[in-house]
Amino acid sequence: MSLMSVDEVAEFLGVQSIRVERLARENLLVTTDKDEQGKPLFKKEDVERYKVLAERLGGL
Questions:
Q1: Domains, the chain, with CATH or none
Q2: What 3-state DSSP class applies to 39?
Q3: In what helix (H) or strand (E) does residue 4 lie, and over which residues does it extend?
Q4: 3-class DSSP state for residue 19?
Q5: Could you tell me which of 54, 58, 13, 53 has the C-alpha nearest to residue 42?
Q6: pLDDT value at position 43?
Q7: Distance CA 23, CA 25 (A)
Q8: 34, 41 contact by CB (below 8 A)
Q9: Is residue 13 within a helix (H) or strand (E), and if so which, with residue range?
Q10: Helix (H) or strand (E) segment spanning residue 33
């Protein structure tokens, strides 16, 4: 299982880090764990699935 940080997810999705944190708060991206600073970590597979879904619904 590969985990991604907020910054890595933001880069992968092409959005700002603050947007990734908001998606996590709204449970649109499911967090798996937290890093040392308390920021969420995400499974790479979940992020990839979210990107596909978002593109099907009209974009990020």
A1: 3-57 (1.10.1660.10)
A2: coil
A3: strand 3-4
A4: helix
A5: 13
A6: 96
A7: 6
A8: yes
A9: helix 6-13
A10: strand 33-34
2: helix, coil or strand?
coil
Q: Are 42 and 32 in contact (CB under 8 A)?
A: yes
8 A C-beta contact, residue 7 and residue 28: no
User: So what's the pLDDT on residue 45?
Assistant: 95
User: What gap in Å lies between CA 54 and CA 51, rounded to an integer?
Assistant: 5
Instruction: Give, for all 60 residues of the chain, the pLDDT tens digit.
Output: 699 999 999 999 999 999 999 999 999 999 999 989 989 999 999 999 999 999 999 877
Burial of 42 (0-12, 13-18, 19+ CB in 10 A): buried
DSSP of 21-59, one letter per residue? HHHHHTTSS---EE-TTS-EEEEHHHHHHHHHHHHHTT-
